[in-house]
Amino acid sequence: MSFIWPITSSVATTEQTDIHSNVTTTGTPLTTDIFFSPSDIYDPRLTRPFAIICLFVGSIGNSLSFIVFTQKQLRTHSTFRYLAYLSIVDLIVIYLGLGHLILRDYFQFDIREQNLFLCKFHTFLTYVTTHLSSWILTLVSIDRAIACTVIQLNKRFCRPKSADRIFIGMCIIISLINSHILLFMGSKRTIIHSNQKNISSHQQIIVCTHNTSEIYFHFFEKPYSIIDLFSYVLIPFLIMTICAGIIAYRLFFSLSKTPLTKKSQKKTRKSTRRAKQISYMLLILNIVFVVLLAPIVIGQVFQELNQEHRYRLYNSITLVLSYSNHALNFVLYGIASPQFRLTLRQLLGLGPGHTTHRRFQTFGLFTSTGL
């Protein structure tokens, strides 16, 4: 995954000891026995405070977004249904990643080293949820593009039930793509400690790494990293850019040439103006998406094998960028939305109920295609 290296690197950590020890494997031998600690791969002085702040902000933001997007006024529209799913998925991402980082850096507790099942499942879930987050954003762009252009598909595709089915289908597809992690990730190893009196003791540990066999190691390092790069960032970004272009063409060129009656001109101008604002926001979101996520997947592809410690500062910065994307989505997709602000004020009791209701009716023509 784009930021899997700080969570499950291709190397494992071992405690320093003055006792001479031999290390053997209980299963398939590893291709290398080089070991680095997590602090060799990223700088805790940067990531530790960031993890606490980002987890706090992301927890509040994504939880608040989910509550808002599931309100009666919004949940009946497919766009906001996707954004509700996005809030939950991003919340899972930051707890899987930042929660794991906090436990390991502050309490020296690594959940992936407790047993082989947790190693496989935690890694698998991290990949699935981060990929799913990118594709939900892509589905939002597709949903809006169809709603603006294809009336026939709009009635079938841009509905809450359709959004639910598509989301479930996307979960299944992404899970199948990453299912190899459940089969091949991690291994059990036996450490044999022997002292000067030739008394030996055995200790079994979990090495949560893809370096379990030569074939899987090379598959994970290059072919799968390229697949990850395309499926996590490049393909979603390409689709979002195409959809943004379609929406912009529809709003800026097609609608301007459509003949309108005097009665509908004023109402259409208002809807078009708001839709144009959302198109600008969608373009900004695409740019922010690729800026925050591209550096880490590019680094994953081009960094030399087992040389993560040479890119310590770069790894720390990309870690911060990647989790910021999942923690701050609510700012870009929520706070920038008129419907979000209105619903939030209504929940907090900061606005008159009748005024809010009337403004929602004004936005009624627009809510199915806009944010």
What does this structure look like?
With 371 residues, this protein is mostly helical. It is built from 15 helices and 3 strands. The chain has helices spanning 38-41, 44-69, 72-75, 78-107, 116-149, 151-157, 160-177, 180-184, 214-221, 223-254, 262-302, 312-327, 329-335, 338-348, 353-362, and strands at residues 21-25, 187-194, 200-207. Strand 2 (187-194) and strand 3 form a beta hairpin. Helix 5 (116-149) runs parallel beside helix 10 and helix 10 (223-254) packs antiparallel against helix 11 (262-302). Mean pLDDT is 76; it is low at 1-26 and 354-371.
Could you outline the blueprint of secondary structure elements for this entry?
Blueprint: E1 21-25, H1 38-41, H2 44-69, H3 72-75, H4 78-107, H5 116-149, H6 151-157, H7 160-177, H8 180-184, E2 187-194, E3 200-207, H9 214-221, H10 223-254, H11 262-302, H12 312-327, H13 329-335, H14 338-348, H15 353-362
Antiparallel strand pairs: 1-2, 2-3
Shape: elongated
Q: With helices defined by DSSP (H or I, 4 residues minimum), what is the helix count?
A: 15
The side-by-side strand order for the widest beta sheet comes to 1-2-3
Number of strands: 3
Average per-residue pLDDT, rounded, comes to: 76
Percentage of β-strand residues: 5-15%
Q: Give, in order, the helices and strands.
A: EHHHHHHHHEEHHHHHHH
Distance between the termini: 29 Å
From the alpha carbons, calculate the radius of gyration and give it in angstroms. Answer: 24 Å
Structural class: mainly alpha
The share of residues in helices is 55-70%
